[in-house]
Amino acid sequence: MTEPGAYGGPTVLRIMLGVHLRRLREAAHVSRSEAGWAIRGSESKISRLELGRVGFKVRDVEDLLTLYKLDDSQERERLLNMAREANNPGWWQRYDDVTPTWFHSYLGLEMAADLIRTFELQFVPGLLQTPDYARAAIALGRQDRPLSKAEQERLVALRMNRQQVLTRQRPARLWAVIDEGVLRRPIGSRAILKDQLEYLLEASHRHNITLQIIPFAKGGYTATGSAFTLLRFNDTDLPDIVYIEHLTSAVYLDKREELDAYVVTMDSVSISAAQPRETEGILRHALELLDQRGEA
139: how many CB neighbours lie within 10 A of its CB? Predict the structure, then answer.
């Protein structure tokens, strides 16, 4: 059986190790500044380590475990092995040349997630995109630095590889809520959109995928004004995380009050959306409208 968090590679291992180190430090009544001094660093470095936002030097982890008086040799070796493995590259790191550094953490977290809830206003969620739709969406790119064809193809490959999270031995559950406008916007071409809608029909029947659509008839609804994703994990050492992507950066939220606000918002848009059993009818209607447009 796959260990909880194992799919997320180094990203998740860093977070889990950070949680363990924070617990040990607090149990030993050691301040962050004292811990920083022990590894020739600062209080802020300890904070980053405990949040899993930077890589670990095995020597630093050894010094911290000694400072925290961890005498259990088996537990000590387990944590040191975790530190070593956290420095190994994840499969997605071979795409580092075409992805921003702020996106790398998300890729690891997405692979480790047990439940992915996402809200989209403009595009079909990346985990449900066909290759042609992904290619067309990526080609839109950023206007300040157009991507080459080779870069676009590498990003398409990355997006397709990400979808393994839904088909692996222990697949994640995806609950996607999208605005009906996504079904009408011909990203790339009418033919590409038609293939994408047919794929959504197929995907919506999978046991681990829930797809809801907010119809135009609903009018306005409560939302944040932008897309966001909620990630939940099967391991208690991993906190729920909200991911919000901007043009040149991303925000990762894990504070309880921030999470609660986004959970309430996600629940609200799910209530505003048509029920999952209505999804097939809405998709078929969108396909009919697309065919009528093609005949006109």
Answer: 15
Nearest-10 crossing angle of helices 149-162, 101-112: 20
Cβ neighbours of residue 152 under 8 Å, at least 6 residues apart? 135, 138, 139, 141
Distance CA 129, CA 150 (A): 19
Task: Write down the residue that tokens 């079909």 correspond to.
Answer: 124
Q: Point out the least confidently predicted range of 147-151, 157-161, 226-230, 246-250.
A: 246-250
Helix (H) or strand (E) run with residue 241 in it: strand 241-245
CATH class of 6-85: mainly alpha
Give the chain's mean pLDDT.
89
CATH code of the region 95-295: 3.30.870
d(C-alpha 69, C-alpha 24), whole Å: 9
Q: Is the pLDDT of residue 5 over 50?
A: no
Question: Is-contact 183 282, C-beta < 8 A?
Answer: yes
Amino acid identity, residue 250? A
pTM for this model (two decimals): 0.83
Residue among 101, 224, 118 at smallest CA distance from 165: 118
Task: Name the band, by pLDDT with cuts 50, 70 and 90, for residue 7.
Answer: low
Domain ranges of the chain: 6-85, 95-295
Nearest partner of 25 among 54, 66, 57, judged by Cα: 66
Nearest residue to 119 (alpha-carbon basis) of 288, 289, 280, 271: 271
Smallest CA-to-CA distance from 12 within 244, 277, 234 is with 234
